[in-house]
Amino acid sequence: MAYKGKVQLTLVIVAPADQVAEGDRLFQAHGPWMNATHHRTGEKALLSYTLSKAQEVTNPMDSGSAPTGNTVFVLMEIYETAAGVAEHFALSGDWKEFPAVAAWMGKCKVTGVTVAPIINSLW
C-alpha cells in the first residue's frame, strides 16, 4: 500500500550501551499501548508502526564498519493525517511510561521529525 500524502513521524534514538536495556523495556510497553489506544480508520488512523534496532557503526553506509558501542532505535509511525499525530501526542501524557520515556531520551541522542508529509511511497 502506498502512503504518498500521508504523514510520518520518525524518531532516531542513539542509546549508549548503558541505556539499551531501558530502551528495550520502554519499547516492549510502547507497542501494546499504541495498539490499544490508536485509531485504525478515519483521519486519525495509525496506518503503520515499526520499530527497528541495530548497533550503530562508524560508517552508516558500510554495515561492516566498526561498531561505536551505541545502539540505534528507529521508530516510524504513519498516520492518515496530521490529526493522528496530534492525537498521539495528546494521548502520550496519559501513558504511564511517558515520564520514563522522556527521562530516557534525555540520556540519548534523539533526532527526527514528528509531522512529515510523505512525498514518495511504493507498495
Structure write-up:
This protein has helices at 20-37, 82-92, 98-105, and strands spanning 7-15, 46-57, 67-79, 109-117. The chain is of the alpha+beta class and 123 residues long. It has a four-stranded antiparallel beta sheet. The longest helix is centred in the N-terminal third of the chain and has 18 residues, at 20-37. The mean pLDDT is 97.
In terms of DSSP E residues, the strand content is 25-35%
Alpha carbon gap, first and last residue: 4 Å
Helix content: 25-40%
Give me the secondary-structure category.
Answer: alpha+beta
| Order of strands across the main sheet | 2-3-1-4
Order of helices and strands: EHEEHHE
Rounded radius of gyration (Å): 15 Å
The best one-word shape is globular
The profile of the biggest β sheet is: 4 strands, antiparallel
Uncertain segments: none
- What's the helix count? 3
Number of strands: 4
**Mean pLDDT, rounded to whole units?**
97
The oligomerization state is: single chain
